[in-house]
Structure formats: structure tokens, C-alpha cells
Amino acid sequence: MITHNKHKYSALVMCNILGLSRQTYYYKVKPKKDEAALEEAVTEEFMKSWKVYGTRKIK
Fold first, then answer.
1. C-alpha–C-alpha distance, residues 14 and 3, integer Å
2. Residue 55: HSE in the Cβ half-sphere, 13 Å Cα cutoff
């Protein structure tokens, strides 16, 4: 709705009327990091400890 009427009205005014913050309108989702390498390293360390170490020891 805001994008379609951006040529007539400012984004600030339309966000105020709709009850949105400008941050919500301009928000971009950040892509998630691939944690496969980290997961592999933690699993390897866990296996080396004979499945005894918990999260405190592995950190």
C-alpha cells in the first residue's frame, strides 16, 4: 500500500496514518548464516570427548 502511493505521499505520513513505525516499513530481513562448519566442529569435539563433555566444557 505504501509502495503504491509513494509517488503521492511521503512514507512518513502514510506510516503515521497506518500506525506503523518507519523502521517497520524499511526493515530488511538479514539472511541466516550457515553454521554447518561450526556444527561439525562441535560434534567432532563432542565425539572426541567420548560423549562426556557438555556445552560448558566445549565452549
1. 10
2. 1
- Which tens digits make up the pLDDT trace of 1-56? 888 988 999 999 999 999 999 999 999 999 988 888 888 988 888 888 887 777 66
Global pTM reads: 0.47
Asked if residues 49 and 57 have their Cβ atoms less than 8 Å apart, the reply is yes
Cβ atoms 46, 53 nearer than 8 A? yes
* d(C-alpha 33, C-alpha 24), whole Å: 22
- How many other CB atoms are there within 10 angstroms of residue 2's CB atom? 15
